[in-house]
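Box 4.2: Ligand-aware structure prediction
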Amino acid sequence: MPVNPRTVSAHSAPKDIAKVLREDGCVIIANIVAPELMDQVLAELEQNIATTRGGVTDFLGHATRRIGALIARSPSARSLVTHPTILNTLDLALGDHGSTFQIDLTQLVDIGPGEPGQPIHRDQWSFDYYPFPTGFEAEIATMWAATDFTEEMGATRVIVGSHLWEGDPEADPALTTGAVMSKGSVLLYAGSIYHGGGSNKSDVRRIGVNIGYSLGWLRQEENQYLACPLEIARTLPEGLLRLMGYQRGAAALGYVDDLREPLDWLYDLPSVHTDYVTYRRGARSLLRQTEPYAPTPE
Ligand SMILES: O=C(O)CCC(=O)C(=O)O
């Protein structure tokens, strides 16, 4: 008998949200942002949505439009990426597995009427099907409801508890349930959980904003350095830049030229060397800096 994803309140403590995520592989946070914020995201992406066509494979969905580069294209989407409840939950859920974490991808997923269900999959398969140990999360995604998510409209389908399945068995779609939620709510789901976009049997579009996060030592799915022009990057808050990858993924991963932090490269600052322990202690907390970056040369 399929089990519904659990829903928690927007005022829940990150440790309680992380607990459900660890136990079930997914959790819905109800009404975490105002529906108007989601309208703003859609308005900022209107042109992109209007000029984007459906996908070319069954996986991408022929009646599904996917729009990326959300940090460059939608200033309002940036506040979803850096939402404190999400970052604090990720810190607990991903934190043990790396010095830091980063954005994996940003993508609006607009499922049109008549679209059949997406093949059920694990997002972590994108890491070349590496067999991560059961219970080890390398990636956690969010799906923000930019419209209501109903069963009929194609709410994301999940198999609660499947993040703990050993190996990669074939999943029976009959085991899935829809992550039903209202506009302004968010579904968090582990890279190891079986899930997929639902079939849209309604006559309206189901639109979600999919923002994924992965361990700092993995390659990002969406290349943030190329997806966001440098002149826009230089206007962004420090924490967001660090999440985009302008921060080493671990002490020696992703430095530029003379062992420089990518953020120092962005602002043409000299290199500051840190040892592994110092780096690991400080890196994750810096993701929470929400002010525009103000470089202070030595
Ligand atoms: O649109 C959805 O609900 C899920 C999308 C998804 O899982 C994917 O595209 O990998």
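In the box above, the bound molecule is 2-oxoglutaric acid. The mean pLDDT is 94.
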